[in-house]
Structure formats: C-alpha cells, structure tokens
UniProtKB/TrEMBL annotation:
Residues 92-187 form the Transglycosylase SLT domain. It holds the Pfam family SLT. Belongs to the transglycosylase Slt family. Gene3D superfamilies: 1.10.530.10. This is Transglycosylase SLT domain-containing protein. PANTHER family: MEMBRANE-BOUND LYTIC MUREIN TRANSGLYCOSYLASE C, SOLUBLE LYTIC MUREIN TRANSGLYCOSYLASE-RELATED.
Length: 221
C-alpha cells in the first residue's frame, strides 16, 4: 500500500512538472489568456479521446501523454506542398495521434517482438543515435517509457525521414519498414493507411465529440 501511494504521488508530481514546463514553453510571458484557454481545451480534448480509445488508462497517465502529444506535435516539420489523409494543411496533432495509436494503442510500456519500445515504438539503437545527433538527454532504453522523451525522439526521427523521402506518407513507410526497407521494397501500404484512418477519426471526434465506430476493440492488459 505504501509503495502504491508513493507511485501515485510520483505520478502526480510528474504531471504537475509536465504542466509547468508545458505552459512555460508554450505561452511565455506575452501569452494571452485566450491562448492559454485554447491550449487547455485542446489538451482536455486529446485526453478525452485517449480515454475513449484506452478507457483503462490512469487519469494522470492520460493527461501527461496528452500534454506531451500537443507539445511534440509542434515539432513536426512537413515538406512543402505536403498532403496527408486528403488534406493539404496537415493537422499535426491528428498526425501524431495516428502514429501513436497505430504503433502502441497509447500503451506506454508497449514492446514489439523486435525490441521497439514505448508509445512510438522506438528501437533503443535509434534512440541512442538520435540522442547524440539531436542533443536529446537519453540514458538507456528505460527512458523510452517516458512520454516526453519517447515522443520527442519519435518526432525528430519522423522529421529526418520526411527530409529524406520528401513526403509524409513515404516517411511513415520508412518509419515502419526502416529507411533501407523503404528504399528496397517500399514498405507496407497498410501502415500509413491505418494512420490516416486514425487521423480522420480524431478530426471527427474533435468536431463532433463522437466516433463513427467503436475504437475500444482491444482488451486491457
């Protein structure tokens, strides 16, 4: 019981720190109250979406992830004249949500049979390389179970792949198959298609507050 209480307190402290860093980075001294309210509303909407997809997730984990998604999505850099899911002005939050939902179903401790870890299923070797080339703090593979680190590394990797391939769709194919695999055989078309489906589902939820189908079709582990 004592250990559970300590873990709960640690999560609450982590959430408070994340909130503080997020709002400090996002708004600064010159930010208006309307901007603050808009971002807070967007975080709440993302949190609600995640709760619909993964209802068993703890509230503090959903909120921490939502803050990280909104923050990391701003780092996405799409090539000029890009389009995705039928849209020329790509919604960064929708794009990142689609990647995370396809990769891990918002499961922080997700692990693939190849050893990819966390929300965006990043290989430890890739994380180590990115940490050196991008100057991101990274100690070992356990860091990939932290939302901020996992999403930041994942987005930076996607940005590199978009520069290399020239399009969001091809970057996603390379993210899934590896850059070498994409160059050799093109990757799995079903992968970016899945992300596009989740992209559109988020857009629908953002507008109407509901889904056209039930997303919670998996068992909680």
């Amino acid at each position: 019981m004592l250990r559970e209480n300590r873990n709960r307190i640690s999560k609450i402290i982590a959430l408070c720190l994340s909130l503080g860093v997020f709002f400090l980075e996002s708004y600064g001294k010159a930010s208006s109250e309307s901007d603050f309210g808009s971002r807070r509303t967007e975080v709440a909407k993302i949190t609600e979406y995640i709760s619909r997809v993964r209802p068993g997730l703890e509230k503090t984990e959903r909120e921490t992830l939502s803050l990280s998604i909104l923050s990391a999505s701003r780092m996405l850099q799409f090539p000029k004249r890009s389009e995705f899911a039928g849209e020329n002005e790509i919604d960064k939050v929708a794009f990142l949500l689609g990647v995370i939902q396809t990769e891990s179903q918002f499961k922080r401790t997700a692990k693939s049979h190849k050893g990819a870890l966390g929300y965006m299923q990043i290989m430890p070797a890739t994380a180590k390389w990115l940490s050196k080339t991008k100057g991101i703090a990274y100690s070992d593979k356990s860091d990939l179970f932290h939302a901020t680190t996992n999403l930041k590394l994942g987005v930076l990797f996607l940005n590199d792949l978009m520069k290399e391939t020239g399009s969001p769709k091809d970057a996603l194919l390379a993210y899934n198959a590896g850059l070498g695999g994409w160059k050799k055989w093109g990757g799995l078309p079903s992968y970016p298609r899945s992300i596009a489906n989740h992209y559109q589902t988020w857009k629908e939820f953002e507008t109407t507050g509901s889904f056209s189908y039930d997303l919670a079709l998996f068992e909680e582990e």
